[in-house]
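Lab notes, practical 5.
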Amino acid sequence: MPITDLLARNAKEFPFDISLVEINPEAELNARRTWKEYDLIESNPHEIGRKEMTWHEFDVKANRFANLLLTRGIKKGDKIAILMMNCLDWLPVYFGILKTGALAVPLNFRYTADEIKYCLRKADCTGLVFGAEFVGRIESICDQIPQISTLLYVGEDCPTFADSYDQYIEYCSSHAPDINLTDDDDGAIYFSSGTTGFPKAILHKHRSLSHSAKCEQNHHHQTKNDVFLCIPPLYHTGAKMHWFGSLYSGSKAVILKGTKPEFILQAASEERCTIVWLLVPWAQDILDAIDSGDVNIRDYHLDQWRLMHIGAQPVPPSLIKRWKEHFPNHEYDTNYGLSESIGPGCVHLGVENIHKVGAIGKAGYGWDTRIVDPDHNDVKQGEVGELAVRGPGVMTCYYNDPEATAEVLDGEWLYTGDMAEEDEDGFIYLVDRKKDVIISGGENIYPVQIEDFLRKHDDIKDVAVIGLPDPRLGEIAAAIIELKDGRDTYEEAIEEFCLELPRYKRPRKIIFADVPRNPTGKIEKPLLRKMYNADGIVAKEVEKH
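Output from the prediction step:
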């Protein structure tokens, strides 16, 4: 069924149940500071940082927005971009677009004006919905995007070059438009994260979107009584497709604006969250805050929290070991996916397989997997090859890019670009990105293996390993190491720690610096290679010969 049918069903069956909650802890803190500064009486500052919406209100908002778009001439098959920070209006805007038969095109909030312009052109967008944070960027390219005939602004103080979403939507019909949608209709275009170059436009049908909802609910056994805490950006398939499990089960979800440990724990406590999806850095921050005494988990009501899961990147087993020490009753899961396979779930560990921490799991609900050599022949169990996946969530194509499509799609199989191996029990372990493999003196070095090893060091908060040019070996492995606050480890200590590694895997260069990650938690290795391939590295480093 089209993904919009699930929203309509929930509005009919659970009209007065809460669908979404938005929490903005910074707004609450600012209110408290203001009242204290002016000696005002505090009523309930939490109300300032919290908004909620029922399933009926959600559906009505989506219907009104769909009808607003139809009055602007938007028709089935058009593409409408969304450039908004996480908020209570984000998902109604998304579903409003889908209800017209148009395609939703979410954009990364970190895009520069030029990247926004590129994506709007690449996806053939004729409309754009944007928030207050992006006024300057959109204004700077307004005269360069004449194809955008519908430009709608969400928020107060609408700029003169756009129309107000809030002003017009209240006059539109609350009834769903009479648009016939099927599983075979195009539903959305998502852009790749750009970790391998300029972002590609990934086209998905409604079938893909609906399957991701079934997959998420199947993997995490979500029921009507679950409450999902959503922190990552909704423009990305990871956050939205995990939320689709809440859509499928008709359960409440909480959109949290903020990633500080105390914000996450407070939201989980006050909203009685049962499922929390974290990125590795956020989980590390929570554990560090607990260990340092900055937060006390006994100050929060967390007994109902049953599942913590992580995706978007390899998960260090040492992190989960630490997590279970503080939260022994939590189930743990990890999901592997990519935007080309409609986000998380094509490979899935499963809460019953915590003894396999470090693996990404086996083929997910409705999915098949293979590990293949460069000629697309299956490799032997235990050998490294490229991971390929097949299932209802595989993209249709890279929109307007047949050459790139042909590079990754072969029949029903999507070739992920991730190198992996399978153990004797059939569990898949990521080894590295195919394009990140370092070839040093003829040896293949997989950075993720070195990163996982270095993260075991007590002083290391985060690490990225990249290949740098070397005149003799071709490439050498360089480790960019971000230390925990207050730690002052030296090169000699890292060198000694790495003696446990085979000699060819030991980093030849050590750089103490911050490790940049994108909003979905992936290390920005192209940026690091650009930074450190240049002469005159500013960061503190030492060469190992």
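Observations recorded by the TA: Confidence is low (pLDDT under 50) at residues 534-545. The first helix runs from residue 3 to 13.
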